[in-house]
Input
Amino acid sequence: MFAGAVTALAVPANAQTLDKALAVQGQADKAAAESQKRINEIRDRTQDAASRYATALADSESLEKYNKQLDKQVSAQREEMTSIEAQLLQIETTNREVQPLMQRMVNTLERFVGLDVPFLLAERTQRVKTLQEIMPRADVTISEKYRRIIEAYQIELEYGRTLDTYEGLIGTGADTRTVSFVRLGRVALMYQSLDGEETAYWDAKNKSWVVDNSYADAVAEARRVARKDGPPELLTVPVPAPQEIRS
Output
């Protein structure tokens, strides 16, 4: 009976020990879980910090590369600006030298037209006048002025090797009338009245028109050839005699 009582008391004692053990194990597990949680949090923060550091490092390297590239661009732009300034200075110097030269070319052309055989005089005079008007203009570039001067010279050169016919006015006041002009280069300038009754040629020496109807057929033929109404033929035209040049 006593032994049975001892056995009955021993079971609750073992149960209490087990409960305590389980409780201790539970606390340990909980503590372990909390520790693992903190470890995970620390690891995450460490990884995040490492990632931010890597990003910052990459950004720093990228920024350094960008700054180096920017320095190169700034240096190149400075060199280019220096070159441009030198070119502008050269252009300014060239303009100062070229402008007087071009003005002399225009003045020479103006004198030449005034002394030349008086064909297409209004057209040629207007061309020179236009050149004189653009010379002082700042809105017209040096290259454009030069181009137009050369163009005018080329036109004048072309006159010297072409045959042309055109209608124009001759005479002054009440004597003004329309006639047909014929120009053979700069060798001869002639005209014929529209009715064919009057033929004349330009006397370069005396700077006057000389009526000479003996050239009527030649002028009519020259007009026909100039209009391309027929094949070229040998023309008889008045040619001024060579003049002696005195020094």
Summary: Residues 1-11 have pLDDT under 50 and may be disordered. The longest strand covers residues 163-170.
